[in-house]
């Protein structure tokens, strides 16, 4: 089996702190995935660290488990980490995930010198990774897209659509009101919220009309942007402009928006799509939404696609 | 004007290092947005730090500009940062962005004690933020979604569609081959790549069929997931299974996939959609793609929506 573990004499000679990251022989993995071993166990449990194995052959180390982080010298951590990495590589682990509370960030540079790099960080914690196996890292990336949503609010009685001019842009182009989704916010809810915040108009989500993907999006911290335009139905009509974000806001004739050059290419395209739907039936342009329970208990997801005729929706084996 | 700056006597008495982060009076902002001032300039430029003002009223500090980071004591940095924050708040700045190279991570905990939190981190750099103004932070979030793409590869001559069974799942459900997009990778290219990697089949992107949004997606590090299924046309037909990812792979009768229970709800839904399109015209189900030049010079974006009739596509004012 991989890794014979430490000899009793070796254990006694090691400074206590160096046992922090003693690798665990794979054969001693218990059902929870926690590593157990005779010699290493005492050192690790005394310091608090308990590396966890995942089902892809990686290891997770959480510095939040350190009982007395203030008393751990970076140099001691460096030596332990170096020894552990060598051992883990020998034992066939493919990667190490290192989770660091923000107040223990002094250990990050130590890990970086051993080859760790930032995977992601948010709020009060950072996650670093080290690929141990051959070749390129096969670890999954962190989130790559921000999601922006706009609402095309069409008053079918007047044929007018709600448009705004951004305050912060150089060119005064008419656009649909919209903005970035909050973390955990559904597409339709972003549209309702942004329309209301920018214009004071209350509306309801009807369908998804378009998706635009752009990489290296300015303002997206080097990441990508998914910009989604939704068809909305208004339930109020009196504009109350948010001066902070918008220069102007009005109900504009949809046919006029579809032809004007005082707009962006994407707004023009979707205005034309919306006009087509307005004149010949929204069923021709809509992606409608259905909600499903996820296989992950307790979570739901929303699925958007072209409406299915009933006979196809209700097919059975 | 806000902030009178430092007196000559005050400047001489300050330790050199403490001038690192001397705030700049707003009136001395030059056209590049860089802050300039008589007294503070010498200290800042000696240490290398040059806070930059952005157009939203925030400040950016880059520790990569430190000339001798090793000689800067964390305690000195703490005092300077504390004084600077007080000054910047007085001067009306709304936020501070602190960019830290991974090897200078020992300054992160210092910043955190002053209220900074991680905004994001990747590779060899972390970005932290501190909201200075009243109320909740209005700073934009980092990326919130990973993007997964699957390809529904339909052989229109046989009516068979390419399906796989995942190796790593407990239940052997038939699905379309797919996987996570690489950073910067277009949706259609992910579909082509993943289909090929998992099955050995070469295919071409035809259209977008569905979008599924799920929050708190397992494996997405607490973030959200956008799962997109594309309609693909095969240009090769001999399966070469990737054993690492897939248990099985076959060309299955589309009508059978649409009715079987040995699949996931989303695969079943899209199989039925695909069958509807196969029988009554793909134009009924497709979201087609058009490419546009972005207003951001040199960049392009792909826009997906229902196909527009020509007379609507070519409307002019």
UniProtKB/TrEMBL annotation, chains A, B:
Entry keyword set: Cytoplasm, Hydrolase, Mitochondrion, Nucleus
Keyword Cytoplasm set for record: yes
Molecular-function GO term, any one: NAD binding
SUPFAM superfamilies recorded: Nudix
EC main group: hydrolase
Subcellular location: Cytoplasm; Nucleus; Mitochondrion
InterPro entries registered for this protein in UniProt: Nudix_hydrolase, NUDIX_hydrolase-like_dom_sf, Nudix_hydrolase6-like, NUDIX_hydrolase_CS, NUDIX_hydrolase_dom, Pre-Nudix
Pfam families documented for this protein: NUDIX, Nudix_hydro
Cellular component terms per the entry's GO annotation: mitochondrion; nucleus
Domain (Nudix hydrolase) ranges: 144-279
GO annotation terms (biological process): negative regulation of cell cycle; negative regulation of cell population proliferation
EC number: 3.6.1.-
Superkingdom in the source lineage: Eukaryota
PROSITE patterns: NUDIX, NUDIX_BOX
Family indicated by similarity: Belongs to the Nudix hydrolase family.
Assembly with partners or alone: Monomer and homodimer.
Stated role: May contribute to the regulation of cell proliferation.
UniProt protein name: Nucleoside diphosphate-linked moiety X motif 6
Natural source organism: Podarcis muralis
């Amino acid at each position: 089996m991989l890794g014979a573990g430490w000899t009793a004499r070796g254990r006694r000679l090691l400074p206590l702190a160096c046992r922090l990251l003693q690798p665990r022989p794979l054969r001693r993995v218990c059902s929870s995935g926690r590593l157990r071993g005779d010699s290493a166990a005492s050192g690790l449990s005394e310091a608090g660290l308990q590396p966890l194995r995942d089902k892809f052959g990686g290891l997770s180390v959480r510095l939040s488990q350190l009982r007395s982080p203030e008393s751990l010298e970076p140099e001691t951590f460096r030596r332990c980490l170096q020894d552990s990495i060598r051992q883990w590589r020998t034992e066939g682990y493919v990667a190490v995930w290192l989770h660091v509370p923000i107040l223990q960030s002094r250990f990050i540079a130590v890990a970086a010198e051993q080859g760790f790099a930032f995977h992601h960080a948010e709020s009060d914690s950072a996650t670093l990774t080290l690929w141990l196996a051959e070749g390129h890292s096969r670890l999954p990336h962190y989130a790559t897209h921000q999601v922006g949503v706009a609402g095309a609010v069409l008053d079918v009685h007047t044929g007018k659509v709600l448009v705004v001019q951004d305050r912060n842009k150089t060119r005064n182009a008419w656009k649909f009101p919209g903005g970035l989704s909050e973390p955990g916010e559904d597409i339709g809810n972003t549209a309702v919220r942004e329309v209301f915040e920018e214009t004071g108009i209350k509306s309801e989500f009807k369908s998804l009309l378009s998706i635009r993907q752009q990489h290296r999006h300015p303002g997206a911290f080097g990441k990508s942007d998914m910009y989604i335009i939704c068809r909305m139905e208004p339930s109020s009509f009196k504009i109350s402009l948010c001066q902070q974000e918008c220069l102007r806001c009005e109900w504009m004739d949809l046919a006029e928006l579809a032809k004007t050059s005082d707009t962006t290419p994407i707004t023009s395209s979707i205005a034309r799509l919306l006009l087509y739907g307005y004149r010949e039936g929204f069923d021709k342009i809509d992606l409608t939404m259905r909600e499903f329970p996820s296989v992950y208990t307790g979570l739901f997801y929303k699925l958007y696609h072209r409406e299915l005729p009933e006979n196809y929706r209700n097919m059975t084996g």
